[in-house]
Amino acid sequence: MFEFHKDKPRYFQYQYLTTKNYIIPFLEKHFLLEPGQKVLEIGSAEAGVLKAFTERGHECTGIELQDSRIDLAKKFMKGEFKKNKVHFINRDIYDIEPEKDLPYKFDLIILKDVIEHIPNQPAFAEKLKSFLKEKGKVFFAFPPWQMPFGGHQQMCTGKILSKLPYFHLLPMPVYKGILRIFRQPPKKITNLEEIKKTGISIERFEKIMKGNNYTIDGKKHYLFNPIYKFKYKLKPRAQSRLISSIPYLRDFLTTGVYYLVTKTD
């Protein structure tokens, strides 16, 4: 496993800098970000993403399943939390009814490296509408499933599997067999198996958005995902227009995508 996954303050900073330097500039090309807007992040973890929005004057809410990560978020965002600039909810998104459980709806919802972990993504896309204001927008960032490390194998223990590209694309029995041979802990195997079941391609994502009446306001595909600048010292590089225009092939060669969508009903 790469060490930065264990170093929570360091990873918080990576998320903050990626959001400040790449995500927000992408959003501003397609959406007027103004102080006072309500921003929700689903899967907010330690809230590095939200910090970049609170410092711009947005009122932020994070929904996170792991209470330990919320505890860290409150620690890292101590000043903002005390001033009610950020709020956290420790619940499953499917268990929240916005009309009853939340004081308002949101101008913008953020899902950074989250959609690929959520089961029943078409139902989830429909659920998101209940959290949005009229013409509210949703930002998605995710690694296409077929990309070299789309199975999140960088989380594996040991130097071989954590750096072995594409093996997550093998049939499930073979994939699980390899994980066992390399002595991955049972809990990690279960987590990687779940990711294999929910991993999403560019084509499937766009189909889900269209099928749930979202319009795509903007998108950007990356050969080198912006967060790789901080994780691996690789300069971010947009995918070529030619590769981005070729369905299915692009999924194997694109390490990250950004999308901004608007609900239309």
Describe it.
By secondary structure, this protein is an alpha/beta fold. It folds into 2 domains: 3-146 and 200-263, Rossmann fold (3-Layer(aba) Sandwich), CATH 3.40.50.150; 153-197, no CATH class. It is 38% helix and 20% strand. The protein has 12 helices and 8 strands. It has an 8-stranded mixed beta sheet with strand order 3-2-1-4-5-8-6-7, with helices on both faces. The protein has helices at 8-28, 48-54, 67-76, 78-82, 98-101, 121-128, 172-181, 186-198, 202-211, 228-231, 241-244, 249-253; strands at 38-42, 59-63, 86-89, 106-112, 132-142, 214-224, 237-238, 256-263.
Fill in the keyword field for this structure.
265 residues; alpha/beta; eight-stranded mixed beta sheet; 12 helices; 20% strand
